Amino acid sequence: MIRPPFHCDFGYNIRIGSNVFLNFNCVILDVVPVTIGAGTQIGPAVQIYSADIRAIRQSQDRCRVRRPVSIGQNVG
Predict the structure, then answer these.
(1) Beta-carbon contacts of residue 6 (< 8 Å; ≥ 6 apart)
(2) The pTM is what?
């Protein structure tokens, strides 16, 4: 279940397992894969970034500042 509003960059890089709950105002910046395991519960206004914002400010090579995010099962 995803409670609106929900925001993401692309959407096609997000993998969500069964019985996952995302509370309202979640943001997922999915420039590379973001995986959320089955049974995980995400609280309100959580922001998940697969782009390292600090590194983007310091680097001209934006390909090196992307990091996949993986959240395990039954995390909450």
Answers:
(1) 22, 24, 25, 26, 27, 28
(2) 0.82
